[in-house]
Amino acid sequence: MTSDRPLALVLASSSPYRRELLARLRLDFETAVPDIDEAPLPGEGAPALALRLAIGKAAAVAARYPDSLIIGSDQVAMNGMEQLHKPGCHATARNQLTAMSGRRITFFTALCLFNSHTGRHQSAVVPVEVKMRQLDAAAIDRYLAAEQPYDCAGSARIEAFGITLVEKLSGDDPNALIGLPLIELCRMLRNEGIDLP
Residues with Cβ < 8 Å from 118, sequence gap 6 or more? Predict the structure, then answer.
């Protein structure tokens, strides 16, 4: 804390999904867009990449918010040994979902809470495993026409119509799959003296 004034809470993200998730905690916060290079390093695994980017996002906005708790998060999905990124277009999304059909996909969501006043940060990676249904071409096309999830890693917007593609979920926090592990975040915020509830 700085004097008797609580630290501001800042979400270092442009993601509307993370903003909606954080709003569930009923805390006042603002958002800031981090400017970082999100390209993976040579040989970097999915959990390490997600964690590096989450920490990097929080650190990238720290100079603009000197007395704040800054939340950074990033997600990397894996289909076997292949990293799944945001498809950006229909053709790539269709290819991703075809390759994911009937498979177990692991979503690694990393979280960082950075106290820009003390320089302390807490971080974690929360995995969620998703067993995809067997998807034929017609089902994939119907889903993509309805949802257009071109800004979602793995082309499946699970919090919306993408849930129809899923057979089973397994993990400690379903919010992590959407992009922000709220259970872990609550623990970190309590470590910084924020009472929840």
Answer: none
Question: Would you call 30 helix, strand, or coil by DSSP?
Answer: strand
Q: Is 77 inside a domain boundary? A: yes
pLDDT tens-digit readout, 83-130? 998 899 999 999 999 999 999 999 999 999 999 999 999 999 999 999
Give the pLDDT of residue 4.
Answer: 57
Q: Is residue 70 part of a domain?
A: yes
Of 135, 118, 138, the closest CA to residue 193 belongs to 118
Whether residue 52 lies inside any domain: the answer is: yes
- 74 catalytic? Reply is yes
DSSP conformation letters of 67-115: TEEEEEEEEEEEETTEEE----SHHHHHHHHHHHTT-EEEEEEEEEEEE
The active-site residue, picked from 28, 35, 67, 74, is 74
Q: Is 197 inside a domain boundary? A: no
- Cα separation of 185 and 113, whole Å? 8
For residue 147, the domain's CATH number is: 3.90.950.10
Which residue segment(s) compose the domain that 98 sits in? 8-191
| Rounded mean pLDDT for each run of 10 residues along the chain, 197 residues in total | 71 94 97 94 95 97 95 95 92 96 97 97 97 97 95 88 95 94 98 94
DSSP β-bridge partners for residue 169: 130
Structural domain tally of the chain? Answer: 1
